[in-house]
Design brief:
It contains 15 helices and 25 strands. By secondary structure, the protein is an alpha/beta fold. The structure holds ligand TXE.
């Protein structure tokens, strides 16, 4: 069986403890590879390698660093099909989604930050005629990039690309649930020409190596995407150690539909924003608010469209939804559907596990599920489910829907559907979220600030925000 290896100091190496965890294909329920169950010794080796590499990497001309990032992008695109298949097997997502979204975006992340860093500049503040201040931005040192399982290579590279571009050395920890494409990336790293120790990838569990990383004295910043509870734990560890923190956490995003919207476009996009990647995207709109006059039409059409979605083998190009990432996560989703029933909700469609034939007979599949009849304040409408489950909630007017949209502890993203742009701007201003989409969803420009408010996180990723996060500003004041 294939054994994934750590990537430390430019070499693929087994974990010091020679212990491995099972890595399961969620579509078959079968173990198909082994992942290092690394411990603090592997973290120590990786951090020391990164620390030793830092002085040279930090002083490597920006154009050279950018060239290496471009090599990564090129290699990812050259291996697009193999990486997409690996992502699909590891995560359960439809291979077509991995081919069209995950892997191209991983290449784009490297390309974007290669170009961004050569255009990056810092400020100057002339103080009348008395002095000139200028800001130096220097890399931080060794940084930790901890990523989740839902968009494995996409989110891992979204962190490591700006960190490396800015001149930091990285210890990356991909999710133990989906380690494969980060491992394949470490093989590509050798071809991309990245110097030894600049990028290290250590595999293993959060409690063992994630926490060893976040409390390590040589780690100066932590960029994390994952669950809100894990984010809180990392913040508790890192805050007294004064490490820089960027936390991208969960969401319970409102999708607000006014009767005057472009109906067909809204319906097609709402289907995607509800069920893409089996609803396991932090940006999915899981609470769908519909203006009362449109409610019954929308409900009928949406349920009909959801019923047509094919839940199937992720390797098949015909599948719209693949497998849920793990058995534990499937159980979590099922428990929320049970909760919705207990809270008095009506399951309009779905609600059940899907049993497929053939090689997927033991896989973890779930029907796209649409629920209505629940108040915005109930747990089903307040807590992140992170699966193919949405609720429909009617609303009377703008004021009411604003209050309901803002009523959860989360504040990641929101979508507004209306042809009335004055209203769209007004709502965009008042919704508590870091990202607002008007008449679209997941339309991404990598220059824009990305992240959430409230329990959805701290800090922003993307564009200049990421480069600022991964550098330390220093003001120099020169008297004239
Ligand atoms: O994520 P975890 P989980 C949400 C979603 C999901 C819930 C929990 O609701 O059901 O979070 O998912 C590492 N110190 N999202 O448990 O544990 C871990 O190894 C340092 C939303 O799978 O947060 C992995 O690499 N690191 C989300 C990463 O953190 C630790 C995407 C994320 O795992 C650690 C995924 C620790 N103490 C889940 N404990 C999004 N925002 O998109 C774990 N890790």
């Amino acid at each position: 069986m294939q054994k994934i290896q750590n990537f430390i100091n430019g070499s693929l190496v087994p974990p010091e403890g020679v212990a491995y965890l099972n890595n399961t294909n969620p579509a078959t329920g079968q173990v198909y590879s082994l992942i290092p169950d690394s411990d603090h010794r592997d973290i120590e080796l990786a951090i020391n390698a990164a620390d030793a590499a830092f002085p040279v990497w930090a002083n490597t001309p920006v154009a050279e660093r950018a060239d290496i990032l471009l090599n990564f992008a090129k290699l990812i695109l050259e291996n697009l099909d193999a990486l997409a298949e690996a992502e699909s097997v590891d995560n359960g997502k439809p291979v077509a989604l991995a081919k069209s979204v995950d892997i191209p975006r991983a290449a784009d992340n490297f390309k974007f930050f290669a170009h961004a860093i050569v255009n990056f500049s810092s400020e100057a503040h002339p103080t009348e005629t008395r002095a000139i201040n200028y800001t130096l931005r220097t890399p931080l040192g060794v940084v930790a990039c901890i990523s989740p399982w839902n968009l494995p290579l996409y989110l891992f590279t979204w962190k490591i690309a700006p960190a490396l571009a800015a001149g930091n050395c990285v210890v990356g920890k991909p999710s133990e649930v989906t380690p494969m494409t980060a491992f394949l990336l470490s093989e590509l790293a050798q071809q991309a020409g990245i110097p030894k120790g600049v990028l290290n990838i250590v595999h293993g569990t959060g409690p063992k190596i994630g926490s060893a990383l976040t409390c390590h004295e040589k780690i100066s910043a932590i960029s994390f995407t994952g669950g809100t509870l894990t984010g809180a734990e990392i913040a508790r560890t890192a805050a007294p150690l004064f490490k820089k923190l960027s936390l991208e956490l969960g969401g319970k995003n409102p999708n607000i539909i006014f009767a005057d919207c472009n109906y067909d476009e809204m319906l097609a996009t709402t289907l995607r924003s509800s069920f893409s990647n089996q609803g396991q995207i932090c940006l999915c709109g899981s609470r769908i608010f519909i203006e009362k006059s449109l409610y019954s039409k929308f409900k009928n059409d949406f349920v009909e469209a959801a019923n047509k979605l094919v839940v199937g083998d992720p390797q098949s190009e015909n599948s719209n939804l693949g497998a849920i990432v793990s058995e534990a996560h499937l159980h979590k989703i099922q428990s929320y559907i049970q909760l919705a029933r207990e809270e008095g909700g009506t399951i309009l469609t779905g609600g059940n596990r899907v049993n497929l034939d053939g090689q997927c007979k033991d896989g973890w599949f779930m029907e796209p599920t649409v629920i209505d009849g629940l108040p915005p304040s109930c747990r089903t409408n307040q807590e992140e489910i992170f699966g193919p489950v949405v609720t429909l909630i009617p609303f009377e007017n703008e004021k009411e829907v604003l209050k309901q949209a803002n009523s959860t502890k989360y504040g990641l993203s929101a979508t507004i559907w209306t042809e009335n742009l004055t209203r769209a701007h007004r709502m965009a201003n008042k919704i508590q979220a870091g990202i607002i989409w008007v008449n679209c969803w997941m339309l991404r420009d990598l220059r824009t600030p990305f992240g959430g408010t409230k329990s959805s996180g701290v800090g922003r990723e993307g564009g200049l925000e990421a480069l600022r996060f991964f550098t330390e500003p220093k003001n120099v004041c020169v008297k004239l």
